[in-house]
Amino acid sequence: MPHSHHPHDEFFKAAFSRKEIAIDYLQQFLPERVIKRLNLQELSLVNNSFTTGKLRQLYSDIVYTCPYGAGKQQVLLTFLLEHKSYPEKHPHFQLLRYMLEIWEVQLRQKQALTPVLPVIFYHGEKSWKKLPLRSYFKNLDEELKPYLPEFQYHLTDLDHLKDEEILQLKARFLVNVLLIMKHARDPDYLRRQVLQVFYRTDVHIPGHGGRNFVRTLFVYFFKITDFSVQQTKEIMDKLKEPVKKVAKSTYDRFVEMGLKEGLEKGLQEGREKGIEQGIEQGLQQGLQQGLQQGLQQGIEKGAQKQSRIVAQNLLTKGMLPEEIAEILEMSLDSVQELLNQAEEK
Q1: Which of 32, 250, 251, 336 is the most exposed place for a label (fewest CB within 10 A)?
Q2: What is the CA radius of gyration of the chain?
Q3: What are the Cα distances from residue 312, in Å, to 180, 233, 318, 327, 330?
Q4: 10 Å Cβ neighbour count for 244?
């Protein structure tokens, strides 16, 4: 099954780019005095990232503009996913660099400067202790404090949120987003509590974009886990219809993608090997003829080798030879021969 190098980043962007999820989060977690002054109906996604250089290694960002107050001053609401699995010691410095990047862009484009309300999402294993910027300086004299920059950021440390608190939120998919991100590094939990992770998704599927987002949840679920075929079937059997149908179609697509990526890799390796063999033969029989022969032999050898690897992997995940034959579009005898070759290796 294909695994992304950045599944958390991809899921975070997919989730919080949905306006309804962003609004649900802001209404549930920002201070009421701020929410009352935000015109969330005019919340608008900014198709631009302000993480550059080193910041890109620390955060992924989703940015919205929103009118604020009676004068409808524009503010920027930035959702930032902390990439590291441990707390940042000096988050104010990174955030200050981030906000300066935004304001410098606005100055270059001759735009009005807008206040930035940063929200950090953290789902690491160690607790994040939120402290003021001045705490970074030891034995700081009171008279020096006015010379230091001071600003706030909103922190959501998912480890500090109890599952019960998340389930009580008055929100749709935000509940599922927070639960699956909180337990993303705990596959045993995801397997045991799959009904809780996909809480009420059966109710929300018929809504606007509901099916697509449930599919997004399952894509993330399959990317961060590595269950066997049998375990996956047991998990999906616990789900309610129509969630089960979405889960199965997403999983089938994952298997198909995994096979395709594996075969393409095998073909590429075969081409490279074929070229090497072709060059060697070309020295003796003529460069052009040798390259063609070597390429063809390499492709065939690479494809056969990759089919053997894929067949063996599917067998170890609990699939029967008959099922493997159907997926690889091969005869049962050919699959059995591949598996016998794998055992001899």
Answers
A1: 32
A2: 26
A3: 31, 19, 10, 13, 14
A4: 16
Cα separation, 298 vs 292, whole angstroms: 10
Sign (positive or negative) of CA dihedral 240, 246, 249, 255: negative
Q: From 82, 50, 81, select the one nearest 63 (Cα to Cα).
A: 50
Q: What is the pLDDT along the chain (345 residues), one digit of tens a residue?
A: 444 448 899 999 999 999 999 999 999 999 999 999 999 999 999 988 888 878 888 889 999 999 999 887 999 999 999 988 888 899 999 999 999 999 999 999 999 999 999 999 999 888 999 999 999 999 999 999 999 999 999 999 998 999 999 999 988 899 999 999 999 999 999 999 999 999 999 998 887 788 999 999 999 999 999 888 899 999 999 999 889 999 999 988 877 776 655 555 556 666 666 556 655 555 555 545 545 665 556 555 555 666 666 666 666 666 677 766 666 667 777 767 766 766 665
φ/ψ region of 233 (left if φ > 0, alpha if ψ in -120 to 50, else beta) reads alpha
Residue 230 burial class via C-beta count within 10 angstroms: exposed 0-12, middle 13-18, buried 19 and up: exposed
Contacts 24+ apart (CB under 8 A), 193-196: 194/235, 194/238, 194/239, 195/238, 195/239, 196/163, 196/167
Please state the pTM of the whole predicted model.
Answer: 0.73
Q: For residue 72, list its beta bridge partners.
A: none
Q: Please say whether the dihedral angle defined by the alpha carbons of residues 13, 17, 20 and 24, taken in this order, is positive or negative.
A: positive
